[in-house]
Specification:
Oligomer: single chain
Shape: elongated
Helix content: 40-55%
Strand content: under 5%
Radius of gyration: 20 Å
């Protein structure tokens, strides 16, 4: 996850047992509850924010710049 992006605060009302389970898992993984929940939700929704370099590379390809390959083998042969 991009930790430099602006975060939006929210609150949740959770069953106490569920919260305790989340808290236990967060402690086990040495993470904050917020970080653990954000990761679980992002994975469940298949959400991933592209970083600046990836966005620039996609823009470059859309503008007809850069190098395109028809296969992975073709890509590796060029390296």
């Amino acid at each position: 996850m991009n930790t430099k992006e602006t975060k939006k605060a929210t609150s949740l009302r959770l069953n106490r047992g569920l919260y305790l389970k989340i808290e236990e898992l967060a402690k086990k993984e040495n993470r904050s509850i917020s970080n653990l929940l954000e990761t679980i939700i992002a994975e469940a929704l298949n959400y991933n924010e592209l970083n600046k370099e990836t966005k620039e590379a996609i823009k470059e390809l859309k503008e007809g710049k850069g190098v395109k390959f028809n296969s992975v083998d073709e890509l590796f042969k060029s390296i």
